[in-house]
Design goal:
By secondary structure, this protein is mainly alpha-helical. Helix content is about 55%, strand content about 0%. It has two domains: about 60 residues, no CATH class; about 60 residues. The protein starts with 15 loop residues before the first helix and ends with a helix. InterPro entries: Homeodomain-like_sf, Winged_HTH_dom.
Length: about 170
């Protein structure tokens, strides 16, 4: 590994495609440096900051184009293996009842983590579970209609009597 390989904290919040696009910009800068273009000119041409252009130039001078190569996302690799994700998606489609939760037909992060742990013997925190689901393309779902058991009179009473006390605090 080269000492000056580019690294963005937490992957820079970037997808692999976005990281590759940034890497291409750095490679383009290296090509310009090789043709004698100065860092301020590179910054203007590629529409990047002068600070970035000077940093890239220093790395390029020190170790060549390879120093501008992306190192990928930072941090440890996920313990959630790629082939597990396909299995998990299929299990989530079956619904919570297929996994023993019959009283409430909603997936929660804790339930999803439990399903993963039962199958693969790996525990994930709610935050990790959410990250995995988000990467798989799942989003937060909100019920479209109100529960059949909802008592409108009790709700109105709560809003009228209890909420003003809570709100003042």
């Amino acid at each position: 590994m080269y000492p000056g390989v580019m690294r963005y904290p937490d992957g820079g919040g970037l997808t692999a495609k976005q990281r590759a696009q940034r890497e291409e910009v750095r490679f383009e800068a290296a090509e310009l440096f090789a043709h004698g273009v100065t860092p301020p000119q590179v910054a203007r041409r590629l529409r990047v900051s002068r600070k970035s252009a000077y940093a890239w130039h220093a790395r390029w001078r020190e170790a060549g184009v390879q120093a501008l190569r992306s190192k990928g996302a930072s941090g440890r690799p996920s313990r959630m293996m790629p082939n597990w994700r396909a299995w998990l998606a299929a299990e989530l489609d079956k619904g919570p009842a297929a996994h023993g939760w019959v009283e409430d037909q909603r997936w929660t992060l804790a339930r999803v983590a439990t399903v993963i742990a039962r199958r693969f013997h790996v525990r994930f925190s709610p935050a990790q579970t959410w990250r995995i689901l988000h990467q798989m393309g799942f989003t937060v779902q909100v019920p479209q209609r109100r529960a059949a058991e909802r008592d409108e009179d009790a709700v109105a009473t709560w809003i009228r009597e209890t909420w003003p006390c809570v709100e003042r605090r």
